[in-house]
Amino acid sequence: MDTEWALEELDIFLKLTAFRPSSDRSPTLIRSNVGSMADIVASAQVVEQIFDRLLPTWRTDVPDHLNKRINRWCQHIETAQRVRTVLQRQAEVQEKLGDNAPRLNAAHLHPWVWEGARSLWQSSHYREAVRAACVKLNAETQNKLGRRDVSEAALFIQAFSTDPPQPDRPRLRVMPEDDSKTFTSIHRGIWNFAEGCFAAIRNPLSHTEGDLSEDQALEQLAALSVLARWVDSATIVTQRAR
Fold this sequence. Notes:
Blueprint: H1 3-16, H2 37-54, H3 58-61, H4 74-97, H5 111-122, H6 126-145, H7 152-159, E1 171-173, H8 181-207, H9 214-233, E2 235-237
Antiparallel strand pairs: 1-2
Helix pairs in contact: 1-2, 1-4, 2-4, 5-6, 5-9, 6-7, 6-8, 6-9, 7-8, 8-9
């Protein structure tokens, strides 16, 4: 994220939503904003996306009960203030409260995985987000191979098999076939990894109850992202015409 840009957008929003001075004689608690409604709405369209990135649960975590009585933008104003502080002091807070270990940014995962998961993730439906990412990864792999007759673990096992391609079974290769042990080991490792992802991640999501924590879900998305990058970067090998 461009921190400087995000801070500028938050400052613009906070200036637009600043309250006009009120008269002591006013019989109501309702406060009006400095900016026009059109300008505030336009700015809110941008800052809400910043909120979603840095404080995904802001709609439920930031109090909203005073909006109707004071101003409709109260929740947004407080969220903007919180997010602004996160951007300005997150490095300091991480250093003081933890070991300053690197953090995994979901938006940096492979696009197939994050695009599949994003909308559900942002509403805190982590279990469903991981399942959607599995579906997206499976579909994109089918699209790359031009296959609809096989899916999930079997799809990846056949795709990365070291057997020669067949007319209806193209293969995926992450390195040139050179009859080396490395070639065999890598491709066998990928199909085993894929089989594990669908057996231990995808299947339980469909056949068991319970939710995932945010950390658990992020770890599972990261595993799927590794597999997605192998598929996306692989070369398609088809049977040569005789």
